[in-house]
């Protein structure tokens, strides 16, 4: 029986196995969270609500139906944090990384899975996985230690657990918090003017959202030579693009939030520095993490729509974040600019982007926009009390695995909850990966064939 199971697993394409692994983690987490020991009231949570929470944690989204501090026991919070860690790294990355750290060799099958899960190169996947696991735990540990400076004096020994939880949640871009004892359902609003909390969590969000391939490139090109007193080399093209896009979006987001919300959600903050601190944090968090330093429900509709754009863009490929990815947006923008200039190829920084990458970017964006429209329609249909902007905000937050909410999540109907669960799942594994996982046929290969050209007039 075991040999048959192994054989069947071996025949499953890697992309499908990765998609299945996330579904299995969510279901196991939902079963555990639905048990009485996970809630402070000692009563069972309905399976749909437990499934929503498990899906939100595993897909590192942060949309919640209950305040995490008040509803879940320490055991329940540990389950949620475990789901966040596994979901942020990916089950394949986590298990493969632990095997490598224990000096076990990777088989060809595990190698294929790891490459699919990290977007890395098969020749360097072993060192990449080791670096991912080690770097992740190191970042989370440093972040937790910095947060302890604030939370231990405030909460005593409980501040240690709060710091660890927030550090892991921030690095994995999850947006869950357990500071409800300070302000119920307030997330990080009480710390909007606190640079230590906001900058530490913001830094963890940015690092987790850069992508494992970029982090590896920075380490090997800049940090490792510095430690060995050798000559540093330049970053590869992908890393430079990701860093450029991250910087541009953070600066743009900060300026827009600061200007639009200066006399609104930021008006009660004590001074200019505090307002700038909150705007910077919201700009960083809005693209993928979902921590809130202001009351999202009170934001102007234009600010919400701008946040929808940031959430839709998301983080970098191969990172703990979601969205269509920053590089996808860059490819689309460069394609439009190139076409307007009369060029046949997509050009950026004197480099030609291959057409398959352009097609992939178009496919991801088109599929994602269709999904958003469908889920927004479902929410407005089954929850007519929610306006269109808030429904779009909620759907985009789920797809981008962000977790920001205009305060409507707990009021959603069962149908809308199911739609958002599916949206979070698709957003985490990626619409193309899910499509490939469904469409791939075992052992069935199609040879390329030459087809007659079909001419269509567009524009």
TrEMBL record:
Any Pfam family: TrkH
GO cellular component: plasma membrane
An example Gene Ontology molecular-function term: monoatomic cation transmembrane transporter activity
InterPro entries the UniProt entry points to: Cat_transpt
Subcellular location: Cell membrane
Keyword annotations: Cell membrane, Ion transport, Membrane, Transmembrane, Transmembrane helix, Transport
Organism: Caproicibacterium argilliputei
Main localization (coarse): membrane
A GO BP entry: metal ion transport
Membrane topology summary: Multi-pass membrane protein
Lineage: Bacteria, Bacillati, Bacillota, Clostridia, Eubacteriales
Protein name as it appears in the record: Potassium transporter TrkG
Record-annotated membrane-spanning stretches: 12-35, 47-66, 78-102, 128-148, 160-179, 199-220, 241-260, 309-340, 361-382, 418-440
